[in-house]
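PROTEIN DATA CARD
Card holder: DUF1284 domain-containing protein
Chain length: 123
Origin: Clostridium cylindrosporum DSM 605
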Amino acid sequence: MLKLRPHHIVCLNFYKGIGYSENFVSNMDLIVNKIKNNPETKILICSQADDICKECPHLQIGKCTCEDNISKIDKNASYYLNLEVNSIYKYNELVKLRNKYLTKANFEKICKDCQWYKDGVCK
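Structure generated from the sequence above:
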């Protein structure tokens, strides 16, 4: 089972093989390949550092140095994608929710404070 923060459900949709570092990209590639090859993969939606975060340079001693901002993004993602934190979903269920609820307006509401969004990576 994977652990993912709510906003990472959005990020997975826009992932292009770039990231903070080579280790981050390698980790992200493994996760993307796992869920695409097995859409039944179970995912626990969590509110703290997850399996994607583990190779992020912002993760220091198990905590995100950007936690205040990321928590806001997670709350918006949970709300607009109709996700329950601490619930388990199959990846294909998350894709259906994302496809149903991720309108352009909701995307902007979720991601407006994200640096990747501001840099134009996800547009």
